[in-house]
Design brief:
alpha+beta, eight-stranded mixed beta sheet, two-stranded antiparallel ribbon, 12 strands
Length: about 600
């Protein structure tokens, strides 16, 4: 049964204007005009299209799914019209530079917009999400003629982009790609097959621009020998008009656990002569170029997870407010009450609520760092922001989507038996959420990326910058806070000690014992994500207390921010100490196993 989605505008505005602060954006060159009026206009407009256009199609899209007819993907009824409303409103170019036809607004605002769209309809919103990444890749790595020929229609949304990497033998091991490319005149001929290509085909855009990893003759083995090619579904004439169909076709579509209205395709290139493709960047430089789109997608997968968390929480909260079952435990003579009054249900709803709030803060802070790294004119600030964004990206992708699966599962639990029945709608959130921890680099790979590339590689510089910021926050803790804020301070302090010590262990063992370090990578990512969530919620609580004291904002909402920080501090920050113990000693038990141990 369809249920509404209400954009959490108060929460998003608080993160943007109080936790982050509009001055962080308006101080950047090109963003001087970005103030609360623009933020409000963007949020209100995006909230409207999310709740009124995208959200009503979520349930029907899940039930009907896509159709594969005559080598073409047919989207569910209403999807083409919703996508048209999205691109006609100019949303597709929101965060694209003006010189490419976009509006030139910060990625941070684009992140807020995508949160609402993903919450409304994660399957439909994946299409524009991928296109934004493809646009960024081409704007950074394409030559001027390629940008002129392809970007205007991609920025407008008339054409969409797809990332074509995975092959049956080359999943996480991208270097095993076998798709071939051979030079012919001013282009290349591509032959091979890819699997798991999200939005590899659909009928919402008139052309699809595939970005395909392939291997040139005599190229080095592994990722060093991969090149990137632009392969359009329909060839584009020099004047920008569409020409003949390229040798690109869908072989089949995957039948998935969730995201039923998002086409996942097996793609074939060059059934006869070869697909026409154009080199992007340098020969054998494909993986470096593709990482532009991959890193964009990794943050945005975290945003997908955030959206699903919010939708699942709203669903469970609204059900708990209306479902009458059993008498209050502290008043057994009273009439039966709604289940939101029962302590365990309230505990579950609070877990869902605070994890969603923590995820939002982490994702938005990551987007801010990316904006600063691209637009600051201060070399030091630019470098530090780039390192901060790189550090937070695997957290935003992996920690958030792990929590998404927990929140979606708990949403079913709140509904009880009804949650297990498809008609209630809660099961869809769990089915949709499951892939988020898998695609764009599994969460295990994100943990490896965090410990080896973001800690060991730079001797922990970005990590210690983050922990130093948290330490400074604690050192400057206001003395006039109410007494019940003490548990936030104490538990965050203990968690910080656990994080710093665990980081030191990773740095000590990262080069000398990489297998042991890899075995501890996942608990380290969970620890680091936990403390970041606690830190941002603690900052939010102090800001809310200031606003209460000065009588700014809605009192009930501000009190809820303080409650969230205390709940998180007592329920999640203590996990950091347990995870640190696992990091120190758990790897030995893992690595002492042999294949024979798995009987």
């Amino acid at each position: 049964m369809p249920f509404p989605y209400t954009p959490p505008l108060s929460e998003i505005r608080f993160v943007l204007t109080r936790l982050i602060g509009t001055e962080k954006l308006s101080s950047l060159p090109g963003y001087e005009a970005v103030g609360e009026d623009i933020i409000d206009a963007i949020l209100d407009g995006a909230g409207k299209i999310a709740s009124e256009v995208f959200a009503p199609l979520n349930d029907t899209g899940d039930k009907v799914g896509i159709k594969f007819l005559n080598d073409t993907i047919v989207m569910p009824e209403g999807f083409k019209e919703a996508y048209r409303a999205y691109i006609d409103g100019g949303w597709n170019g929101l965060q694209v530079e003006e010189k490419f036809g976009g509006q030139g607004l910060p990625s941070l605002l684009g992140t807020a917009v995508f949160e609402m769209l993903q919450a409304a309809n994660v399957s439909l919103s994946l299409c524009p999400m991928l296109n934004v990444g493809a646009i960024e890749l081409l704007s950074m790595h394409g030559d001027e003629s390629t940008k002129k020929k392809y970007l205007p229609k991609m920025v407008s949304g008339e054409w969409s982009g797809a990332m074509d990497m995975t092959e049956s033998q080359a999943g996480s091991d991208v270097g095993a790609v076998k798709t071939k490319a051979v030079a012919e005149g001013d282009h290349y001929l591509i032959t091979g097959q890819k699997i798991f290509i999200s939005y590899g085909d659909h009928d919402m855009a008139e052309n699809i621009i595939h970005l395909v990893l392939a291997r040139l003759p005599n190229a080095p083995d592994g990722t060093r020998g991969l090149s990137l090619f632009l392969v359009p579904k329909i060839l584009v004439n020099n004047d920008g008009t569409l020409g003949n169909k390229n040798e690109v076709r869908v072989v089949s579509i995957e039948h998935k656990m969730g995201m039923h209205s998002s086409p996942t395709c097996v793609m074939s290139y060059g059934d006869y002569k070869g697909s026409v493709g154009y080199l992007i960047g340098k020969e054998n430089g494909g993986i470096a170029a593709m990482f532009t789109m991959m890193n964009n997608a990794r943050l945005n997968v975290g945003i997908q997870g955030l959206g699903v968390m919010e939708r699942s929480y709203q669903h469970a909260r609204d059900y708990a407010k209306t479902r009458v079952q059993s008498r209050p435990i502290d008043n057994p003579k009273a009439a039966s009450t709604t289940i939101i009054h029962h302590p365990d249900v309230r505990r579950m709803l609070m877990i869902m609520k605070v994890l969603t709030e923590a995820a939002r803060a982490i994702a938005y802070q990551c987007a801010l760092a990316i904006d600063v790294s691209k637009h600051s004119q201060d070399a030091t600030q630019k470098s530090e922001a780039s390192a901060r964004g790189a550090l937070l990206t695997p957290i935003a992708k992996a920690w958030i989507t792990d929590r998404t699966n927990e929140v979606a599962s708990m949403g079913i639990q709140v509904l009880g038996g009804a949650g297990y029945i498809e008609e209630a709608g809660a099961a869809q959130h769990m089915r949709d959420a499951r892939v988020l921890a898998i695609y764009e680099g599994t969460n295990g790979i994100q943990a490896q990326d965090l410990v080896f590339r973001k800690l060991v590689y730079d001797q922990g510089t970005a990590f210690y910058s983050m922990t130093t910021e948290i330490k400074s926050f604690l050192n400057n803790w206001p003395k006039d806070m109410p007494k019940d804020f003490g548990v936030i301070f104490e538990n965050l302090s203990l968690a910080l000690t656990a994080a710093v010590n665990s980081g030191a262990w990773i740095l000590k063992n990262g080069k000398t014992n990489p297998a042991m370090t890899a075995a501890s990578a996942e608990p380290f990512l969970q620890l680091f994500g936990n403390i970041l969530g606690g830190y941002y919620l603690a900052r939010s609580a102090l800001l809310a207390q200031v606003d209460l004291t000065t009588k700014k904002g809605h009192p009930e909402y501000l009190v809820s921010k303080i409650i969230s920080a205390k709940f998180y501090a007592t329920h999640f920050l203590p996990h950091c100490q347990a995870l640190s113990a696992t990091i120190y000693t758990g790897a030995d038990a893992t690595m002492s196993t042999t294949e024979a141990s798995f009987i």
